[in-house]
Amino acid sequence: MTYRGICAALREAGVDQPERDAELLLEHFCGASPSRVIAEPERQYGGEALCRAVEERCRRVPLQYIMGVWDFYRQTYEVSPDCLIPRQDTEILVEEAVSSLPRGAFFADVCTGSGCIAVSVLAERRDTHALAVELSAPALKLAGRNAERNGVSERFVPMRADALRLSRSDLRQFPSPDAILSNPPYIRTGVLDTLAPEVRREPRMALDGGADGLRFYRALIALAAWWLKPEGFCLFEIGFDQAGELDALAKEGGFSCRILRDLGGCDRVAMLRRARIN
Hints:
This protein is of the alpha/beta class and 278 residues long. It is built from 11 helices and 9 strands. The chain is elongated and about 65 Å long.
């Protein structure tokens, strides 16, 4: 197989960035550097693993699942169809948490998935500890492996629980956190079947935010109202069109809301703090 041929096959299959994907596949499965691949587009590459990977990508299996690993923030993560794929847009949430957490902080990452948020914060802030909450048992095991892979497992506590039903008894062994972080499901149920083929291969439970996309935010704000430290904060990833709704939900729950934008200029993260009473 040649770089040019792989690009053509991926393009015909409707893959969004065929050149980038071809470069990454050749680097991952054949050890070929991107500069060499581009300089020698007709060079032949072989191997069953590469051929199988190209076939899977043409069927619109996500590149991250094919490779089995993906870089996020400054770390590398194992990924599988059991978890949501870590995306660059989520890095703004990690950056804000890293800079805002007080020294020696304890925080919760609810709907942890691959663990990328909690693990990256722990890796950057060696003074912190985290509780990682996830309903999916396979995803929680994956998060645990990622914590070990990135050297933070001693400060990473996994807990299998439903984010929509967390109670005082569930959390009685843990102190009130300095922060609650989450990239929860926030896509409206009616939109799920219109998403790109790659996204539809991700776990539906990690995407489905209910009829209005806000089901998990209501639960998280209610959780923060009784569990979060008085001076603590929440960081929630949101959809590009949900800032107004999050602001309204925050105010109803007694919180202020500041919206952070991603590198593309889209609303991406809601930061909540308890509203001050004058």
